[in-house]
Structures are given as C-alpha cells and as structure tokens.
Design a protein that fits this description.
The chain is mostly helical. It has nine helices and no strands. It has a single domain, classed as Hypothetical protein af1432 (Orthogonal Bundle). Helix content is about 60%, strand content about 0%.
Length: about 150
Amino acid sequence: MNPRGTRLLVDALAFAAYKHRLQRRKDPEASPYINHPIALAHVLTDEAGMTNARLLAAAILHDTIEDTETTYEELRERFGKTIAGVVREVSDDTTLPKAERKRLQIEHAEQLSRRARLVRGTAVTRLRGARQRCVGFSPTRRVMRSLCCGATPS
C-alpha cells in the first residue's frame, strides 16, 4: 500500500475510534465497539484478499453514520465522496423499526455498488461457519466472491 493509502487508513481508524469511543459491543465481554469495524477490515484483507485503501477505510467507517452523530457531509469533507457514499449506502435509517431496516437491506441489496456489497458483508465475520463451495476458498472468501461477482453462494 502506498503512503497515501496508509495515511487514509490510519485517519479512518482514528476517526472511527473517536466516534465510537463510548460504545460497547453487546457481547459477554462488552468489548469496545471499534473492534467490530477493525475485524471487518481484517476479514476483507486477510480472507477476501482486498487491499484497496478506500474500501478498507469505508469498512472501518461503515457504522459511523448509523451509530454515531456523524453526518454524510462530515465524512465527505474528510474522506471524500467515494468513501462517504459507500458508508451512506450501507447505513440503515435508525428511525425505522429493526424488522423494516432488515427488509430494506434485502430489498436494496442488488442495487448496492461493488464496494458497498463488500462492506455490507458486515455479517462476514459471522459467516466463518458457512459451507465451502470452492476448493481452496475459505467460507468467508466464497461469500465475499459472491457479493462482488453476483454469484449465488451455496
């Protein structure tokens, strides 16, 4: 990764860590919330082979609009239109009931950009137990491949 990409990732990590600083996960350990976006970026790089700094920054920032006081405009100004756009694509309207948000996620999934499909793979950290379809691909990589290529995972 080039120095500009490295700076972008470190800036995204610092920004997300600050925005999520008071939040905890709902796991038994009540781990810091920032662990979730970091885990997503790790899966994207380690298991899905993604190295694009903008994609990884969007993954790190993916919950900032939805779960903090961050606005699209703030992200656009600091990280650019591409990253802010991906974060906005994957952000749910938290004023809606959870069941409606999930319904809309499914309804809009096919219209997501390639980057948003990969980032929406937030559930990817839960997909490790999925069955493998292709020899040589981890379950996560198989699902990530299906998200970006449009193939149906089995």
